[in-house]
Amino acid sequence: MVALSDQLVTFAILAYLIAMISHAVEFALGNARKVPAAAPARELVGAGVGGVGGVIDEPVVPAAPQRPDRSAARAVLAGRIAAWLIVLGAALHLGAVVTRGLAADRMPWGNMYEFVLTGTWIGVAAWLVVLWKQPGLRRLGLFLTLVMVLLLAFAELKLYVQVEPLMPALQSWWFIIHVSTIIFASGIFLLGVVPAAAYLMRNGWEQGRRSFPYTLARRLPAAAGLERLTFTLHAFSFPVFTFAVIAGAIWAEAAWGRAWGWDPKETWAFISWVVYAGYLHARATPSVKRNVATWIAIVGFLTVMMNLFGVNFFFTGLHSYAGVE
Amino acid sequence: MTTVDDRPSTPPAQAPRRVNPVLALLRNSWRQLTSMRTALILLFLLAVAAIPGSVLPQRGVNPERVDQWFVDHPDLAPRLDRIGAFEVFGSVWFSAIYLLLFTSLIGCILPRARDHVRALRMKPPAAPKRFARLPQHAVLEAPAAADPEAIAAVLRRRRWRVVVRGNEVSAEKGYLKETGNLLFHVSLVAVLLGVALGSWYGWHGNRILVAGADNAFCNTRQQYAEASLGPRVDSSDLPPFCLTLEKFEADYLPSGLASRYWATVTVDEPGGAERTAGFSVNSPLRLGSANVYLLSNGYAPVLRYTDKYGRSQTSRTPFLRTGDSNATEEGVAIFPDANVDPATGVRAADQQIAFDGFYLPTVPAEGPPVRSAWPEERDPAVNLLAYRGNLGLDAGIPGSVYELDKRQLDDGKLKEIGTKLLRPGEKWTLDDGSTLEFVGTEPYITISVRHAPGQTLLLVASGTLLLGLMGSLFARRRRVWFRVPPPEGGSPTGGSSLVEAGGLPRTEHPGFADEFAQLVAAVSGDAPDARRAREGDE
Questions:
Q1: Domain total in chain A
Q2: Which chain A positions have a beta carbon within 8 Å of B3's beta carbon?
Q3: Do A253 and A277 reside in the same domain of the chain?
Q4: pLDDT in tens, B253-302
């Protein structure tokens, strides 16, 4: 079962990698604005998450009779292939998570490798939901697959550990509640950083910047929609993260005798919480520019990464379950 | 979450009058402090200020590592200590940041609470003149609900707050957003109060509890190896109870990882008979007045020393875990009263005896017996070094009971006299004819006893915090108006049955157009048709 899980991870990485290449082809080929749109009606209605429908690369209003650009049509095809490859990758990825859990006979969240494996899957799954609701954002998949390939490859190479049962300290219902919500929130935060970074580039492009990072954004969806998606994702995961921290405190009271003790992991969770709270406040304050707010969200994600990698590798504390030396 | 909604109209401009400059300064400072910009900066500072608390060891978390840091960085450590870098979360600067932040927060929520109460008591405002200027508007032809009361009924069913003024219907919804926002911020204050209560009135102590009635522990300040009492707690406030460790069980997996711990204790509380209770990691022993948490466990070797005069003394000092996963332990057995001449009662200062070394629950089958091969007792042994001389206990310098004073060794006042591996029941005869017998071991547990008032408040406040947060993030304030032509002629629309509708989202909300369309459809009476027609348009 473990061998199966490991193979599935490898195939999932491959699928994401090919999806990334396919997205890159989509990027390299022509400007999709010239494509006479199929204009799926779903875009208009599916505003439940953020409702950026229609403003992006497949215009709602049928385009003026232009000669269909063949490379642009190929770009759309490449993008669709990429999206389906991500679906395939997510399925393989889910298989890897489930078989890992079956092999360990517990929830697959017992060490850092499993944490990254599950958290990245949450990010991909949430991306598919976003894509289903707002197909116009498809091109963000390039950045998403890049992040996924990097994280998963790092997890395979550096974090991999054998399947072990849980130590007594982790044998509690709170293990499922606390860790699952932390993973869920981290996965959404991970996904949230993709439109955040894309927004910052696209916003610069729309303001006329033509230097290096901004040129990448030439073929990205419109900045306003990216910004709204960034907010929607963070507004969704922040309460989940808050709940996860509270659940952790309740568990810590039972296991370690105190609800909060400034263990390095707790300290960085506090820092992340404060930074994301700052983002939500900045986003809600008209006098704060949207790109400043978005930078705060990026800083928030850096603190989450610091908590995952930095704290596990450099600090010793009570949360030493990573299984890395 | 804040400052999106427009406030009710500002008070009329005040007549110019001389203002006391001190008052003006105070008022301006207060406005600065309660502004969102200041709050954001304080939030950012709070995050930055917490970083050293994770990078540097903290006294409240791990005092041993702070001591080690002092040894490793003798120059830097005292300077950092002076600015509170080893007690970041109790330091003046960290406290200053969060107290300012909370002041700013209270300064922000008080006026907003007042405004919100006013808004809750106010009726939805009158309709604007021209609906066409609103973000959403529609004209309904011959709707099913054509009179204001009927429209109001439709809206009320959908839980809008409705008021009918003549031929106009005003409705508003989503007060939960600001309610949640205020609840979230008030809960934050309550969390801070809970933390403060816990640190003022709470106390905790840690100690080792060796199995057996002789080693029972009663809850007094002196019985703890390490204790910390809140500023409002006196030693005499500790509730009286006694614990005896009866049994400690641990199960291990084939890999050597522990799968289960279980400690069985006898509890003796005032006003009740003795009772037996069990507890474990993740399920503490909850007494009425305090909770007992299982932190760690180990074995205390029982070592009986018989001196050259034939008098025996027994040491049950716990050996502490060295940190390897197979429970190798390190410790000492000290016999300061050894070799007292029974005839004269004179204690020879240079005839004290001590042993230090390792305890291994399972001696490895091969290799030197310095590291245990398994965390359970399969082939236990102590591997000891014997010392004789002056232990230096009378010098008045406080020392650890778990290690020897190495200075005595360096000074030559204490000399090594041999080393030996002993299994249970084995005796070691030293050069002077005295003997050391390894009788066996007794399990011990490390416990933390804690009383933390304010935790109920913390739990409740965390719950309301979460509820408020969700309300403030997911609720959306919005208004709709309907205008029905006046019943008798002379209407602006020429006496027809055209009903106008307008909608204004007060929170940025892309789904509002849909909701508005559905509402209009409901008022029209034939919801599905109206909806299809609208989608066809687009």
A1: 2
A2: 284-286
A3: yes
A4: 887 778 889 999 999 988 878 899 999 988 999 988 899 999 889 999 99
